[in-house]
Input
Amino acid sequence: MKIEVFPATSYSLVYPAIVSLASNVAFRGKTVALIDFNSESEIKKAIMGNSVSNLYSEKVGEGMVFYVNVIAFQKEMGIKDAIESAYKRLKEKRIDIKIVLFPGTEESNIVLLNEERSVYKESFGEEETKHILLLGLERLFTSQSLQSLVSGLDLKRTYAVFVYERWQEYMVSAIEQRIKEKVSQEGFAGYFVLISETGKLPISFGSSREYEPDYRIIEEIFRDSDRHPVTEKIRGAENIEEVILKKKIIVINGSSFSLRDKMLEMIIERLGASNVILLNAGRFKPRVGIEELKVLPSFVDERFKGKNMGDVKAIAKRLAEEVIKKAGNKENTVLVVYETGNITPGILGYDSRITSYEFWNSFLSHINYNMKVSKIIFVCDPNVEACGPIEALADAVIMCKGEMENEVIIKTKE
Output
């Protein structure tokens, strides 16, 4: 996994925060490479001093941190050769997570960005990539759009990370709602906060763990790094892009041991997490920026107490009304229902397939009529219920094969 970091605040704040992030991820058992493109690197000065070596390594907890300053590799060679030389050495280390710290966000760095991405792809292949824009809290109080600080990045895959000093801690909780609203309005994938300390860099990565990062960013990095690489060819998924863009109602059919969750995450990332409402009746962990609505215990109790189809439709209406209330006036909403088997009601003496069809058909009617929804995604586990009735309502079905099989079958209605 690759994390591209673009600083839009003082390096005296950036470096302590990034060193702390790398060391905390390593402490949890990952091998982390911190790749620094700053010619006047404070990390190199603090940790490596005048060392002639261009690659520093340190064991932290159960993991390892490798630090490399690419500019130090440059000497008489061009920047592309310097990157290739550095990445060749890192490739031998079997790194889990690469954190690439660029000099900034100015247009002049586009050439460097393109060179780095080209060499990275040749060295490591295409990998899951997360973009981070590092900001000081003062950015919230300026009229400047945060979007203007990002050159050539897909905002739907870019996280705004606000770095603050310990003395500003009281401010964070007070303005967090403002942070949330600003990044949501501007289309970022989400936000995190990281504590720092102006100009204070440890002499080792291990000692920097005193600045505990926002636990959410650690969980996000771990979850993404454990997913299948995006380069991995999934057999049968050649027309997945067309399904994502053109089909309104999609059913993902698969057990919890299949590629089901990966397919869902990929679709959410493609559509933009900020537009998603998740009706969660399973154990899916939503990304930052997703509105989550958990199915109430009272509904779970109620779904088996109906006596006829009228009761089934009434339950469907009540559930739909909860979702509609959560969505408000939000437009182009993507509704994800996870997992249907924990929601579909049952009636003694009625065919479960007929009950399922009537319930979800009624649910969809209320949603489509009362909500500005652009896409609806159902996740159905065939080991829990028959998915056929729900699939009959869909425009496309993505069937994920058995445990750890790297194959899907996509069926669409013309």
Notes: The longest helix spans residues 309-327. The CA atoms of residues 174 and 324 lie 29 Å apart. The radius of gyration is 24 Å.
